[in-house]
Amino acid sequence: MGTGTPKYQILLDWVMENAESGKMKRGSKIPSENELAEMFGISRQTVRHAIGLLEQKDVVKRVRGSGTYLEYGEPGENEEAKERRKSAGPKENSPKRYQNVAVISTYADDYIFPSVIQGIERTLSKNHYTMQIAFTRNRVSREREALVNLIEKNCIDGLILEPAQSALPNANMNLYQTLAGRHIPILCFHCSNWEMDFPCVAMDDRRVGEQAASCLLQAGHKKIGGIFKSDDSQGHLRYQGFGQALKEAGIKLKGKEVVWMDTVSMAEMELWADYLFHRLEGCTAVVCYNDQVAYRVAGLCEQRGIRVPEDLSLVGIDHLEQAFGGQRKITSFQHPKEALGRKAAENMIRMIEDPLFDGNYLFDARLVELGTVKQIFD
Q1: Relative orientation angle of helices 113-126 and 338-353, to the nearest 10 degrees
Q2: In angstroms, rounded to a whole number, what is the distance separating the alpha carbons of residues 143 and 149?
């Protein structure tokens, strides 16, 4: 499902409407990047992207050190000629095609990532694109190295990206702006950073957080805790949905029952298990950020003699029981995995071929019940 009109399209439409109505004459200077960003409530990066698209169609012309001027509409130009100008493809100075797409992912060899990457690679290959890939281990410094390498080699048609630590301020925005300035389309997958204005193909994380909480509410639970990831935007979206479901059920979050963790603490849950269970004390059920977290919580419960689901019900997200060798089965919401990778690649190809294409897409998730939710009867 699409997520609405992209922000840059609003600016494109405004320029074209003013040009066609005669409110802006050929040769007139259009507002500056800062002025347009303020007028439309968008980032300067989005303004640059929109102006770049208009420039490709000869609607505007940028003059270094002076500004951007309207080129659309020759004196006495008839409607047919105007239409030809609007529909004209990129000129000779448009980006060279390399049939090569870069992919930057946080991880590669575990959890859901092999299936997602496989979906991307198969779709690109089917459409005669090669793929070059880099992995960041969710580190901004490694993301920066990958971006610098892409900029220096300058041989890609597009970038499919999972931002590192996507909930935190991004120190690499200047590098993304460099790529966008070269008219290289950028598409996020899994999640986007709040500073970015690139389209994204992802699971509907807010919705799945709401569904996970609703699953427990429908089972009769009222004392529900949550464990969410603080440095990835997926964690914040899933928390928003979780909180919304409880609010609609008339249950107030006190704060103590919600536990936040980052990438490091997620890998070291055993070290802070006492704190975790202290925060969850009194809860009969917990929504976990993903199945990795749910699996570890189930293991910690076993060590402490806490029975799942008799004493504590668990719901995860992603449904990837094979990642755990089938040792534990967690009630979870199924991640689209390879389908998400295919969709990301398909949308990137369309963005390369049509700069005005909206690459956003959200997947729904399906509940897979595997016995870790206890029904409570009053």
Answers
A1: 40
A2: 10
**347 closest CA partner among 142, 101, 65:** 101
Judge residue 76's burial from the number of C-beta atoms within 10 Å of its C-beta, 0-12 exposed, 13-18 middle, 19 or more buried: exposed
Rounded to an integer, what distance in angstroms lies between the CA atom of residue 24 and that of residue 40?
18
May I ask the CATH architecture of the domain 205-335? 3-Layer(aba) Sandwich (3.40)
Decide if 217 contacts 284 (C-beta within 8 A).
no
Provide the edge-to-edge strand list for the sheet that holds 158-161: 130-135, 100-105, 158-161, 186-189, 200-203, 361-363
CATH of 100-203+337-365 among 3.40.50.2300, 3.90.226.10, 1.10.10.60, 3.30.930.10: 3.40.50.2300
| CA distance linking residue 147 with residue 145, whole number of Å | 6
Could you tell me if 166 and 105 are in contact, meaning their C-beta atoms sit under 8 angstroms apart? no
181-195 pLDDT tens trace: 888 999 999 999 888
Note the pLDDT tens digit of each residue in 113-153: 999 999 999 999 999 999 999 999 999 999 999 999 999 99
Q: How far is CA 26 from CA 13, 60, 71, in A?
A: 17, 9, 5
Q: Which two tokens stand for residue 66?
A: 């002076």
Return the SS3 of 7: helix
Cα angle value 101/344/317 (rounded, 5°): 135
Mean pLDDT of the chain: 88
C-alpha to C-alpha distance for 28 and 30, rounded to whole angstroms: 6
pLDDT, tens only, 106-124: 998 778 899 999 999 999 9
- Residue with tokens 């870790």, as numbered in its chain: 372
What residues does 283 pair with on adjacent strands? none
12-71 pLDDT, tens per residue?
A: 889 888 888 888 888 888 888 888 988 888 887 788 888 888 887 778 887 766 678 888
- On whether the CB atoms of residues 164 and 145 are closer than 8 A, the answer is no
DSSP state of 29: B
